[in-house]
Amino acid sequence: MSFADLGLSDELLRAIADAGYTEPTPVQAAAITPVLMNRDLIAIAQTGTGKTASFVLPMIDILAHGRSRARMPRSLILEPTRELAAQVAENFEKYGKYHKLSMALLIGGVNMGDQVAALEKGVDVLIATPGRLMDLFQRGKILLTGCSLLVIDEADRMLDMGFIPDIEEICTKLPAARQTLLFSATMPPPIKKLADKFLSNPKQIEVARTGSTNASIEQALVTTTSRGKRETLRGLLGADDVNTAIIFANRKTTVRDLNQSLQRHGFKSGEIHGDMDQSSRLKELDRFKAGDINILVASDVAARGLDIKGVSHVFNFDAPWHPDDYVHRIGRTGRAGATGKAFTLITDEDAENIANIEKLTGQKIPRIEGLKAEREAPAAAEERRPASRRGGGERSRPERDRRDSVAQRAPAPAAEPIANDADAAWNGPVPAFLNQRIAD
Ligand code: AMP
């Protein structure tokens, strides 16, 4: 099947070709035609499947005719996080370049005056997080009575974040005769209830089994201890095929501390978490996308659904508490045909979390052995020395070397091999780190 078979306009086909896409992904092939025919839709699809284009593309053609009126958006897309909302806006820009659609982004953390001014002019597409939308609605800045198309994206994520009551309220403000599209990676009962209440005779599609992980992601659990985690992680990062990596931690403080520690060890890392304001989060993301940094330490909420191309590795510094988060996290790699690797550092306390993950994904994840304790290494000692004694800001040579070669360096000569009796369970290449100790 090609994009031309789906009933999209020539302008859109041109924009798709410009973006370099030759074939629709399964969710696009299944969703686009029914959406163009104004059907309601429930799509069970994870991020990374091309689901954003599956609603953005038909929406552009649907909205191509007709005019917007002041304060009355013609369509509304609800997203759980600001980053996702910004990403959807980028998709509209990419695919809508041969159309003249107006768009506004209503997200927390950016100037409300500009957002209100855009709304006043009238918009075809409003992309919003529920909190900011409700806020402006209550101030009388928006009328949703002209909104004939609603997209609820990442509905299960909205549920986790407590947005369902807001979404229900928003749904009641829209005209009853509208088209509604709901996307969710999983279909827990509250989402099913929401769909039953607000969608009418929806077409249902499912592109990946609930909780399934992408086959193009090689996964491993790396056993370690709390004290051995950082060194194990540095060793894995030092393996020669890590180009770009996202490292997930469960707590914001861990994100911050780990990023600082990695920087002290000469890695080009940055951080993104919920305590940062919108502009610093976007700035950090831009640095990652531009390659100024190649490691991003992230919390779950801040990284939800981020579309960052070519991430070679995902590391779970902490095993996620919720099994769904595991699927979401490792979905940052192995996207749209590329292969990726996902390593999860686990300690004895994580046994239950891991059992839940393996139950959800229906897969036993191979285990390999990391370091059990943080070794007293020169760099670790360096890290503890006051900055004033580190040669006036000039980095030591080994540290400079490490910093400059995170992506390319070959592992240092072996000091002493690490016992690795679980090798046989690991299908992918064994990271160099596990056979050769990194001289730290
Ligand atoms: P999404 O699931 O919407 O987050 O999209 C995941 C990634 O797939 C994004 O990087 C898209 O740019 C990319 N993508 C979307 N549609 C296609 C397509 N038809 N062919 C190849 N890549 C695509």
Give a brief outline of the structure:
With about 450 residues, the chain is an alpha/beta fold.
Please explain how this structure is put together.
With 440 residues, this protein is α/β, with parallel strands linked by helices. The protein has 2 domains: 204 residues, P-loop containing nucleotide triphosphate hydrolases (Rossmann fold, 3-Layer(aba) Sandwich); 223 residues, P-loop containing nucleotide triphosphate hydrolases (Rossmann fold, 3-Layer(aba) Sandwich). 39% of the residues lie in helices and 14% in strands. The chain has 18 helices and 14 strands. The strands form 2 sheets. A 7-stranded parallel beta sheet has the order 3-4-2-5-6-1-7, sandwiched between helices. A 7-stranded parallel beta sheet has the order 10-11-9-12-13-8-14, sandwiched between helices. Strand 3, helix 5 and strand 4 form a beta-alpha-beta unit. The longest helix is centred in the first third of the chain and has 14 residues. The chain is globular. The C terminus is likely disordered. The site of adenosine monophosphate (AMP) has 16 residues, from helix 3.
